[in-house]
Amino acid sequence: MNLIKFLDEFTSENLAKKGASRRDAFSTFSSLGKKAAIAAVPFGMAAASNKAKAATMFQSDDAVNALQLALTLEYLEASFYLQALDSNVLDQDGTGKANAIYEQISMHESAHVTLLQDTLMDLGETPTAEPTFDFTAGGTFDPFNTNNPDAYAQLLALAQAFEDTGVRAYKGQAGALIGNDNLLTAALQIHSVEARHASEIRRLRGLQGWITLDQRGPNMPSVTQDVYNGEENLNQGGVDVSTLGDESPFTAEASSQAYDEILTGDEAVAIASLFIE
């Protein structure tokens, strides 16, 4: 499928209005110049700052698609965390821990958006517009409603699903960036931070920091299963990793935890589209 065409069908000019004070507090990440953004998030992109040089280096439509997909996923995450913070639902944990974690991740995601937008513009490409997101997924969730007794649990569950999607999607797009060392390096460095986010959210939910087989974990809505399909793979490089070990075979559960699988672009788009109006 044509990924860019698909994404364009779901774009709109602006997000629905959210709490101005919180958005204003984080808006500086969107307005940072390239130099400031790179200084704040050292992704090694300085070499790509010259547009003519970047255009010469960058020839692959697949690579452009990969960056546009990454940007759309970062839009989704950045918008989600801002709305979560605006909602005050996180105050239900009673400790302030969840709010502090979401604030930090929110700043990371805003920085990722800025970097990807600037990189695409350096390449002479127009960054895909930010979609309008529906984090209720058509009424399945109600995560920003303080009167919903399940809102806090839903905020954490959605964060886990979004971060796990990001980790697998970045890995799935790495091949499209081969041959463009600066872009591949940047994508992998964002990927590693997304993995840290995923682990942090899992810990916040009282879970282990890694995925076991294709299990989405307790209290995760069934609609999130597509995020975890394929993680049960035990064959790595032609080797059944559950048979490794000097004394006894590893269990399937432990073996699957040691490796992450990819999401294809189409799979990532299908997941994200559940939350795009």
TrEMBL record:
InterPro entries assigned to the protein according to its UniProt record, in alphabetical order: Ferritin-like, Ferritin-like_SF
Pfam family, one: Ferritin_2
Annotated CDD domains: Ferritin_like
Protein name, per record: Ferritin-like domain-containing protein
Naturally occurring in which organism (per UniProt): Mesonia mobilis
